[in-house]
Amino acid sequence: MIGRIAGILVTRQPPQLLVDCNGVGYEIEAPMPVFYNLPQVGEKVVLFIHMVVREDAQLLYGFSTLDQRAMFRELIKVSGVGAKMAVAILSGLSAEDFAMCITNQDVAALTRLPGIGKKTAERLIVEMQDRVGKLGGDNVSLPGGSAATSGGNNQSQAIAALEALGFKSAEAQRMVKGTKGDSVEEIVRDALKSVSGK
Fold it and tell me: Are 46 and 5 in contact (CB under 8 A)?
């Protein structure tokens, strides 16, 4: 299994990025906090990886820290929560905010995330109650620069990124309206903050 990838960042189109490792390009899906810490395209990047092997695909999920990956692995153990939903959760809430929602049994905050209804939120609270306290010990970061400003229509790319995270097209457009970020990552971060109420 692949646990870590180090290579050159080729493309960054949230929620996906492409990393070249000695001529082999790895497509990796990652939550938005990972994109905030990526270096410029063409520079070296190192990510912790969770690999999912299915009959029809081998999928890679990338994380900046071991804590992020540990939280992802705990989330996908919850009944009804798949990798896509776990990425959406980690994109919409920081690990600290998520832990706070679980501890405070804040169903309302969790249901504001894409694809999470009341039943799933309640299940998350029940199943994650004992796990969140055990997470957050290592906090190992990996090298990376600040977010790069990409060319093209950043708002359109931000809308596409929000749709990939599970938001409906109209909702994604509404969320992006009024954001002040210059890069795709900043626009998506502002849009997600408006949903989480932070």
Answer: yes
